[in-house]
């Protein structure tokens, strides 16, 4: 749903209805779902960003994912029933800050802000709707 999408400071990116996009958890570079936009950016803004943003085609843990022998798990943030930020990215940032090398600009370059750290998405939420406050969209 549009109300659960993290919109960047520069605003909503341009998109057309039917474009392929990916859903990710802030702080985790791997997508948790893919789908197509339900309306254009212009239509969404004109309507006040209501309703579903994507028609989800596939998501982490769905039947397609389970049908593969030894399915691929992108990183340690992907648990059986929830997806969190990638802890290897978080620990690298923490290590850098202890070394005095991280002044916060690295988080901005990675698209991570302090409010997003520690958030997660329950995989069950993605199955029905992409509507968590900790969901960000990425253009495919």
From TrEMBL:
InterPro entries: EIF2D, PUA-like_sf, PUA_eIF2d-like. PROSITE patterns: PUA (PS50890). Residues 95-117 are annotated as: Disordered. Residues 1-62 form the Eukaryotic translation initiation factor 2D-like PUA RNA-binding domain. GO terms for molecular function: translation initiation factor activity. CDD domains: PUA_eIF2d-like. One of its GO terms (biological process) is formation of translation preinitiation complex. PANTHER family: EUKARYOTIC TRANSLATION INITIATION FACTOR 2D. This is Putative PUA-like domain-containing protein. It comes from Rosa chinensis.
């Amino acid at each position: 749903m549009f109300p659960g999408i993290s919109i960047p400071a520069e605003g909503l990116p341009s998109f057309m209805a039917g474009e392929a996009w990916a859903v990710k958890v802030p702080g985790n570079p791997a997508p948790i779902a893919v789908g197509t936009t339900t309306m254009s950016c212009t239509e969404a803004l004109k309507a006040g960003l209501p309703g579903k943003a994507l028609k989800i085609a596939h998501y982490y843990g769905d039947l397609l994912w389970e049908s593969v022998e030894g399915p691929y798990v992108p990183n340690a943030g992907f648990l059986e029933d929830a997806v969190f930020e990638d802890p290897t990215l978080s620990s690298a940032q923490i290590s850098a800050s202890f070394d005095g090398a991280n002044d916060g600009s690295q988080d901005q370059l990675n698209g991570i802000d302090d409010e997003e750290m520690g958030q997660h998405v329950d995989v069950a939420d993605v199955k029905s709707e992409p509507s968590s406050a900790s969901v960000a969209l990425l253009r495919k």
